[in-house]
Write a structure and sequence with these properties.
Layout lengths: L1 E9 L3 H12 L7 E9 L7 H8 L5 E6 L5 H15 L3 E6 L2 E3 L3 H12 L3 E3 L2 E4 L20 E3 L6 E5 L1 H4 L16 H11 L4 E3 L5 E4 L9
Parallel strand pairs: 1-2, 1-4, 2-3, 6-10, 7-11
Antiparallel strand pairs: 4-9, 5-11, 6-9, 8-10
Length: about 220
């Protein structure tokens, strides 16, 4: 049986994290795929641990919780990469803690890997409208790409890849970009693309996020 580890870095967003986990519970899966959800709490007081402990009792997938007290999503993601060496899965995914997952997400990914011999698969993060927001943020997504297009980067808000492509490499998210809070994930997957690994984008690999009102402010 093959194993998929879904990595979720979280920081003080318990309500969103709970919704994310509920969506993963509804995920359509292949019987031969074992799913482990790896939650990396980036607080100093293990803020999400009680929430996840309650949800684990009746959860369909195994949940592992670890802590990274060094502040910054780069440190949290690198902590996940270190944990992967112990778990040794066949597949790895990164998603955001404030997103929900389309039920056919995994089924569609596995089809693309089989048909296109893909190493990395990514897709859109679709922002859900509310009374207080607009959809302008979608301009930053690859929504204008044609389906099943080869691309040269991916982001950790919605990405799936074969663990073998990083298993024996000293490749981590760039700590120097931690202070900017962006760009380190694109760089990580761009490096893999430069090494010859194929990244495919598909409109059917969907996650959803409720667009936070404060993100609409341009400074």
């Amino acid at each position: 049986m093959k194993t998929l580890v879904i990595c979720i870095c979280t920081y003080k967003r318990n309500e969103s994290l709970a919704q994310c986990l509920k969506s993963l519970k509804k995920l359509n899966t292949k019987k031969k795929i074992k799913i482990i959800i790896l939650i990396i709490d980036n607080t100093t007081n293990y803020e999400s641990f009680n929430l996840v402990k309650k949800m684990k009792k009746n959860f369909v997938h195994r949940i592992i919780q670890i802590n990274e007290s060094k502040r910054g999503v780069v440190h949290a993601r690198n902590k996940a990469l270190k944990k992967l060496k112990k778990l040794e899965p066949q597949y790895v995914s990164f998603i955001d803690d404030d997103c929900t997952i389309d039920k056919l997400w995994l089924i569609n990914i596995l089809k693309i890997i089989k048909k296109n011999n893909a190493d990395i698969v990514t897709g859109p993060q679709i922002y859900l409208k509310s009374k207080k927001n607009i959809n302008y943020t979608q301009y930053f997504e690859k929504k204008y790409y044609s389906n099943l297009k080869k691309v040269n980067w991916a982001a950790t808000n919605n990405v799936f890849f074969l663990y073998n492509i990083i298993k024996n490499k000293k490749l981590f998210f760039d700590k120097s970009l931690n202070k900017f809070g962006m760009g380190e994930d694109q760089l990580f997957f761009s490096i893999l693309n430069q090494k010859g690994y194929k990244i495919y984008w598909s409109k059917n690999i969907k996650v959803y996020e409720k667009n936070h009102y404060h993100r609409l402010n341009i400074h």
